[in-house]
Amino acid sequence: MQNNTYILGIESSCDDTAAAVIHNSKICSNVVATQKIHEEYGGVVPELASRAHQQNIVPVIHQALREANIDKKQLSAIAFTRGPGLMGSLLVGTSFAKSLAMGLDIPLIDVNHMQAHILAHFIDNGDNRMPQFPFLAMTISGGHTQIVKVSSHFDMQILGETIDDAVGEAFDKSAKILGLPYPGGPLIDKYAQLGDPKRFQFTKPKVGPMDFSFSGLKTAVLYFIQREVKENPNFIKENLEDICASLQYTIVSYLMDKLKNAVKHTGIKEIAIGGGVSANSGIRKALGEAESKYGWKTHIPKFEYCTDNAAMIAIVGELKYKEAQFSTLDISAKARLKL
Ligand code: KG4
Ligand code: ZN
Fold first, then answer.
1. What is the rounded distance in angstroms from the CA atom of residue 277 to the CA atom of residue 308?
2. CA-to-CA distance for 314 and 19, rounded, in angstroms?
3. Which of 9, 240, 283, 297 gets the highest tally of CB atoms within 10 A of its CB?
């Protein structure tokens, strides 16, 4: 299979419309249009997301081609997110990818969004720090929380996952209770860095050793805040930094507990994380400490490859292209696609 390829990746699984071009594992362009409309509603509204994708997809793809300095006729294949995600959102990217591949008469490649979060580590950043197989991947975002054993690019096994909310939702829903705007994760992180992480205690939910549960934490935060605000209406304002620090400490140590269990279970000490919550300063610090404390080798992608993006779709496209793993034009989007 030729190596001199340009592959366009298209991502539209949730509320980011994204397109990227990859050439020999290096990203030539990586464009993301984040939909601001959802901020007013405090969460993603599926119907509005698909409409916004419809408006954004053509300009985003044009921009990705322009920034990569190539014409669409130079593309070797089109890779797109098939799932998992919101059906209305996925349909926009899927239909567009099919039409473009058909119009250009080039292969179409379907990509699993969760696999892409993990394989984003194989984008060539020129630093030679790609994970070695087998490694453990923890995907932590607003839509997913999983620990996966990665034996090769396409041999992945889920060791544990959330039984209810994703970790990003735990951040965002707690932030909402504290009156912070959506998405609240980055704000909790910002205030947490100024507060005392041991000031308030939240219990860590008990589930399987490598599984997660976050819905109880959200309820615990709600009851705690309601109780305190009854006593002192200014409680949140006066204690915001300590509340955020304590909450972040609980979540990060919970994530680390699960990783430690997975290391114990598999004997693998090579760890890679992905997803929007990888931007969190607490988890970054904890992983850095684990390198010296437990002898782990940890990998955190560049920030733009942590959150939803099309560069990760493009790298999977390239890896599949090399193995001629193409899809047919009758392929359909899948909201609940398994890893
Ligand atoms: O991967 P992503 O962009 O989209 C999903 O697939 O969900 O992740 C977004 C999630 C949101 O829940 C957001 O609050 C969270 O990542 N997030 C953070 C931080 N930055 C983004 N959570 C905690 N700390 C951060 N610094
Ligand atoms: Zn994602």
1. 11
2. 8
3. 9
Give dist(CA 146, CA 158) in Å, integer.
7
CB 194 within 8 A of CB 240: no
CA-nearest of 89, 70, 86, 81 to 109 is 81
Q: Which residues pair with 135 in a beta bridge?
A: 150
Length of the chain: 339
pTM above 0.90, yes or no: yes
Which atom of ligand 1 lies closest to the CA of 169? Answer: 12
Residue 191: CA count within 13 A, CB half-sphere = 21
Helix axis angle, 167-177 to 235-266, nearest 10°: 170
Q: Establish whether residue 183 lines the binding site of ligand 1, counting it when its CB lies within 6 angstroms of any ligand atom.
A: yes
User: What's the N-to-C CA distance of the chain in angstroms?
Assistant: 26
Residue with tokens 């340009």, as numbered in its chain: 6
| 132: exposed, middle or buried (Cβ count in 10 Å: 0-12, 13-18, 19+) | exposed
> What pLDDT does residue 45 have?
85
Cα–ligand 2 centroid distance for 14 (angstroms): 8
Quick one: which of 208, 227, 230, 211 has its CA closest to 219?
227
Structure tokens at 268: 């693998």
Query: What DSSP state is assigned to residue 29?
Result: E
DSSP 8-class letter at 164: S
To the nearest 10 degrees (0 to 180), the angle between helices 185-192 and 281-294 is 60
- For the chain, helix, strand, coil in percent to 5 are 50, 20, 30
Block means of pLDDT (10 residues each) for the chain, 339 residues, are 84 95 97 86 85 96 98 98 97 98 98 96 91 98 94 98 97 96 95 98 94 96 98 98 98 98 98 95 97 97 93 98 97 95
